[in-house]
Design a protein that fits this description.
The chain is of the alpha/beta class and 300 residues long. Helix content is 42%, strand content 18%. The strands form two sheets. It has an eight-stranded parallel beta barrel, surrounded by eight helices. α3 crosses α5. It is globular and about 60 Å long. The relative contact order is 0.13.
Length: 300
């Protein structure tokens, strides 16, 4: 069965606390499985949000929803600090947390201002993810000596149940990282064919490990009575967010009615997606929530 999540409604944090709780409760009432957020330290003009802190706030608004971050820019953090934050959040919301890890790089400056060399962020992510996984399993670890020089690091208590760590990214390196070090692959901007190929490569890279794989795409969508209407809503929002034309994203962005969107997503589910992270853009919040909820019903 596929788990369907949606990003927090636009403008959530501008609402009074009672309305925030009501809106997140509406998402849970609709049968949606989880909410998810992005993570940026200083994106483009300095914008962003800390993904784990955002999840901490969301977890208290509605305890019925899972909380996912996709993707957490791990190379911009020290692995000891990242492991402690993940463990703390897992203790407060046991069984609800999943962490997607990415290398960043859409904005090179964001990496640089965190005193990280963009050219090394892939290797740094490999090292950090291995250390975080070991720490969350209760092991005592040393830094690798290149990026991290600490000795005898450990984290207590260990999350119970364990926190899934999935890997995001489109590159061959990301697929290998997901297979070697992750519990699955969080895909973005890829066709169903590419997604199926990626899933096969991830699982081949992790063939020697015992893993309950969690794969899925993370997609924006345009909700409306027609594909044209849905496109108008999502194109405007994405162009404002990414500061570039919607055209390169269009082929990966379902638009229209719930049935239209479900038809677009079915090939991903058939190719092995067990998670769908959806960012809906529509005429209003109710339409966005109802669209995601109906998409889930059509796919399960």
């Amino acid at each position: 069965m596929v788990a369907v999540g949606m990003s927090p409604p636009w403008g959530l944090w501008e609402l009074p606390p009672g309305e925030q709780r009501s809106l997140m409760g509406r998402i849970a009432d609709a049968g949606i499985d989880h909410t998810f957020t992005a993570d940026h330290v200083s994106f483009r003009d300095g914008s962003g949000m800390d993904g784990l802190i955002t999840l901490a706030a969301l977890s208290g608004l509605e305890p019925r929803l899972g909380i996912h971050v996709g993707v957490y820019l791990l190379p911009l953090r020290h692995p000891m600090v990242a492991a402690r934050q993940i463990a703390t959040l897992a203790e407060a919301a046991p069984g609800r947390l999943a962490v997607g890890v990415g290398v960043g790089g859409d904005d090179r400056r964001e990496v640089e201002v965190c005193d990280v060399d963009p050219a090394t962020r892939g290797r740094r992510t490999d090292v950090a993810l291995g250390l975080v996984r070991a720490l969350l399993e209760g092991r005592t670890v040393d830094g690798d000596g290149e990026f991290f020089q600490f000795q005898d690091g450990r984290i207590r208590p260990v999350p119970d149940p364990p926190v899934p760590l999935v890997v995001g990214g489109r590159s061959d390196a990301a697929l290998g990282r997901a297979g070697r070090l992750g519990d699955g692959w969080l895909a973005a901007w890829c066709s169903p064919r590419r997604f199926a190929e990626g899933v096969a490569r991830v699982e081949a890279a992790g063939a020697s490990r015992e893993v309950e794989w969690r794969h899925g795409p993370q997609l924006w969508l345009g909700a409306g009575a027609s594909a044209a209407e849905g496109r108008s809503h999502v194109a405007e929002t994405m162009e404002r967010f990414y500061r570039m034309s919607f055209e390169p994203f269009e082929r990966y962005t379902p638009c229209g009615t719930p049935a239209d969107i479900a038809d677009f997503l079915k090939p991903y589910v058939e190719a092995g997606a067990s998670i769908l992270n959806l960012t809906p853009c529509g005429p209003d919040r109710d339409t966005e929530i109802d669209t995601v909820a109906e998409v889930k019903q059509l796919l399960t």
